[in-house]
Amino acid sequence: MKRKWKSHIEVTLIYLFIAFMFVVIAYPLLWTISMSLNPGTSLYSASLIPEKWTLEHYKWLFTSPQSDYLLWYKNSLFVAAVNAALSVFFTALIAYAFSRYKFVGRKTGLYLFLVLQMFPSLMAMVALYILLDMLHLLDSLWGLILIYVGGQIPFNAWLVKGYFDTIPRELDEAARIDGAGHFGVFFRIMLPLAKPILAVVALFNFMAPFTDFLLPSIVLRDPDKFTLAVGLFNFISDRFANNFTRFAAGSILIAAPIAIVFLFLQRYLISGLTAGGTKG
């Protein structure tokens, strides 16, 4: 009986914790959605349940000549798509090399990847700024992409390398007996079997440019090259700015491409896991 009561208490505490976390996550989101539907532009006149809801703020973002929202959206989509594609490609190549080959410095390189993850990216901002200045890539979307692609390698390469280690080496040997070279094994054997982990890498690196503010605010100076995070910040950062409802509307729309990519990659993730679980 005592054990039964203990089990009930544990379950109750778990549900209470889940309910608390739901409120913590959902409350700001609900406020953002409701604020984007409130008339006017003031933060203090907005209410959680709008008396007269409107879509004027969403319309203003796309139609007003004072709004560069579509340009910022295009910049963010470009950076996110290129970052995701290049990150998956280079991460997979590096992880494949560390997983399948023996070379001088291999163990040191793996330890270096671990050590680099211990330091926050903020520590490297000055060095990154100087590097981009030397490469003449300041105030450039390609400079921003370069930092994103290079910065994700230590964590994701270790992650993908661990997944590649679970793929039997016998498949590599069988492919080489059939005449496949190094790249043949990589593209025809490893990449198809690694779809689940590559989908995770692609999703995380697609999301990063939409949510990152610090790095773009340092690298980009031209308003025509701003990403969404930097552009939306300018809505409310000016001394006399009062665009909180428009800021909320713009923030809500950021979720659209991320959700679409997640749903697209989820299909490949599930199919990859299913295929892997049913083979031999």
TrEMBL record:
Q: What keywords appear on the UniProt entry?
A: Cell membrane, Membrane, Sugar transport, Transmembrane, Transmembrane helix, Transport
Keyword Membrane belongs to the record: yes
Residues in domain ABC transmembrane type-1? 73-265
Q: Which GO terms describe its cellular component?
A: plasma membrane
Q: What membrane topology is annotated for this entry?
A: Multi-pass membrane protein
Any single biological process term in GO = maltodextrin transmembrane transport
Q: Which GO terms describe its molecular function?
A: ABC-type maltose transporter activity
Q: Does the keyword Metal-binding apply?
A: no
Q: Which domain of life is it from?
A: Bacteria
The family database entries (Pfam families) matched by this protein are listed as: BPD_transp_1
Which parts of the chain span the membrane according to its record? 12-33, 77-98, 110-132, 144-164, 185-207, 247-265
Compartment(s) of residence: Cell membrane
The family this protein is said to belong to: Belongs to the binding-protein-dependent transport system permease family.
Q: Which PANTHER family match?
A: GALACTOOLIGOSACCHARIDES TRANSPORT SYSTEM PERMEASE PROTEIN GANQ, MALTOSE TRANSPORT SYSTEM PERMEASE-RELATED
Name listed for the protein in its UniProt record: Sugar ABC transporter permease
